[in-house]
Amino acid sequence: MVDVSRHPNVELLTLSTIKKVSGFVGNFTVTLHQKARYVDASQCTACGDCAKVCPQRFPDEFNLGLSTRTAIYQPFPQAVPAAFCRNEKQCLGALPLACGKCLAACEKKCIDFDQKDIERDYEVGAIVLATGMDVFDATTLAEFGYGKYPDVLTSLEFERLCSAGGPTGGHIVKISDGEEPKDVVFIHCVGSRDKAVGNEYCSRVCCMFIIKQAHLLKDKMPGANVTSYYMDIRAYGKGFEEFYDRVREEGVRFKRGKPSEIFRRKGRLIVRVDDTLLGKVIEHETDMVVLGVGLVPSEGHRELAQALKLSLSSDRFFLEAHPKLRPVDTNIDGVYLAGCAQGPKDIPDTVAQAKGAASSAIALLNKGKVKVDPIVADINEDACSSCHICEALCPYQALVYDTQKHVMTVNQILCKGCGVCPSACPSGAITLRHYTSVQIDAQLDALLSKGGESREERAVAEKVEA
Amino acid sequence: MAQFNPTIIGFACNWCCYAGADLAGTSRMKYPANLRLIRVMCSGRIDPQFILRAFKEGADGVFIGGCHPGDCHYVSGNYKTEKRIFLLKNLLAGLGIESERLELNWVSASEGQIFADAVTAFTERIRKLGPLALDAPPSVSQDVAPELEAPAPAAESAGPPPADAESAKPDLGHLKAVPDAGQFACRIPQFKIPDGA
Ligand code: FES
Fold first, then answer.
1. Residue contact B48–A423, C-beta within 8 A
2. Is the pTM for the entire model greater than 0.90?
3. How far is B193 from chain A (nearest CA, A)?
4. Out of 1.20.1330, 3.90.1690, 3.90.1570, 3.40.50, which CATH number does the structure's domain B1-197 have?
5. Which domains does chain A have, with CATH numbers?
6. CA-based nearest distance A343→chain B, Å
7. Inter-chain CB proximity B75 and A395 less than 8 Å
8. What value, to the nearest 5°, has the Cα angle with vertex A107 and ends A106 and A109?
């Protein structure tokens, strides 16, 4: 990230959302909305003086609410750009009577409460979507009691607990009483491979991150009892199976079965699970449960899909042009996908796809021209009656109304040649090159004429015979 | 008497059904040779006029193959086909052509066997129906009109079967006034296209 922000050819825009995208491959216009940061990022040295004086306290999103932050803050220590930002809804305001302490504390005077959101147009040739994913909201599965019992955590929260830079400095403790847990249960496939919550897909990374977290736990607390309940272990990557074996040797117990319920009895958590290998229901008494939450499409991806006119696959991630042969492209030329925007994947896969997307974009831009298929629609302007019927049918928005000539026109770069419009045009003004009505009619005639005769000719011949 | 050998015209989209037919061929699967296939880029290219012309020029049945819903190479062409075929089937009755002579099928590129089976079943059905007699005077007023009033829901139209026949009756009163299925098919509101289509 730091390298990206320093690269002379890269302009990094944070706090920005895409509002609108128009144009086509090589000539996109992207309208961006950039939220005000209220801090001059080029001046800020991230010294933290402003945060020291801020009286406000809010749950820290990066630590998933396990710690607090101020209203002027840096999202996380390695955030790029390395500058603070101010949440205008949480800040008390600048009026001297209200607060304004940070303004006085900032030596470089880079805090500006009057900054405004900006909207800007960018002319770009290609677009790479790398919008990532979100984690599954574990509160939807009420049976696991997440949000009700403090010691039921998601894997992301557990990750923060393990981190040396996290809220506990890397000490794994129970949220309820701050004691070290003696027994920890991990649950796989929470919100993945589950038709009931609408996520039929495998999130691909959870098995391995749970195995890694179990390993971290054993590393920090060799005496702890660690059990992992799984449906299937999918350790499919390079070195993954070996790692899984190693963690099993470290003493982490893997049991096959999906827990059905978590409840509290005499101050301890009970995990009820059907052990499918033993064939019986067991109740596991434990101190802490970690839910291995799956991945879901990132927030706002639907709006983005609409802005770019992209399709989503049935799992709601962005749809690639071809699952095997064009996994990086989309059905819109010049728009590429990288990482979890296209579907759950781990870091090596994401890096591979991102490099593929970047190379595709560079290859496209360097050539300076695009080859388009000859199979496109053509409009006979004299026949077009401006009924606009075709306009709504085109999935690529390739048909545009020419308000000067009062006829439809085809953007031959956007047109993919499906032929939906020519078969709907009531005036017969649209032809699909290489699949014109004349050509198809000729094929029909050739296929149906017996000995070169049409039905009428045959009828006449039969009458003559009779 | 010799067995009736129907002439069947097939329209197949390039990306799924045609590839499925190709697979059926390369895997040496058997299906009746009555089918004569025309390739189009997408089933959405199939103008209802082609189908009518096929019937007029001597086809006894018309078989249409496209990608499965949601799989169309051109995002949503097959949904438009589904609407057109649904309407055309209802119009065919008015022209004195049994609507069973027109069939829409979803066949993916990997479904060679399904393609062969569908073609075999369709050919058998047409064989039973016998040759298409277009010269017979149309009898719309007596026996076909009731059918127009309450047409059977098209077998291909997606969704669960309706609870009772009354609620299933699509309002097709306006259909009779429309001269050309091609014109009409594009004016009806879009089917609700599921996510990701
Ligand atoms: S491409 Fe097969 S139906 Fe559209």
1. yes
2. no
3. 11
4. 3.40.50
5. 133-296 (3.50.50.60), 377-435 (3.30.70.20)
6. 13
7. yes
8. 65
